[in-house]
Amino acid sequence: MNIYSDLSHTAIKYLKDTEFDLRNLLVITGDFNICDSLWDLSFSHHSFISDDLFAIADLFDLSLSYSPDLVPTRYLDNPSESNSVIDLMFLHSSSSKLNTHCIHPDWCCLLDHALLTATIPIVEECVEKSK
Asked: What SS3 class is residue 12?
């Protein structure tokens, strides 16, 4: 599931207040527009909306993925403002093969956000069929 939550956190509030049935959700990712010390070491505060985001992820047995690339995900043109980490990825908690993602700041091109990627392993399976 890809999520964009505006500065008022509309998407996060909607997901928190809405009951829905999604099965086999492996990934939640997106631009959450939340600065928090939990995932951005340059930020010194904790945001209460982060608790709602973690509660939503927990409903699907997803955990915040910490990228080995400790780099920002949003880059600002204004040098007086700091770059930040507001793009996140939550991955399936019980998967040992789907437990990390990468941040690619060099793939930004004309965007102000770095792209995030995760490798999702697909197991080859033979399905027998008959008539």
From this structure: helix
Q: What is the CATH number of the domain that holds 35?
A: 3.60.10.10
The tally of domains found in the chain comes to 1
Q: What is the pTM of this model?
A: 0.79
User: What average pLDDT score do residues 30-41 get?
Assistant: 88
**Segment 64-102, tens digit of pLDDT:** 888 777 788 787 777 777 888 888 889 887 766 676 777
Rounded to whole angstroms, the Cα distance separating 70 from 32 reads 18
Residue 54 domain-assigned?
yes
Residue 22 near residue 1, CB atoms below 8 Å: yes
Residue 127 lies in a domain: no
Confirm if 1 and 65 have CB atoms less than 8 A apart: no
Q: Is the Cβ–Cβ distance between 3 and 11 less than 8 Å?
A: yes
Paired sense of beta strands 27-31 and 87-92, if any = antiparallel
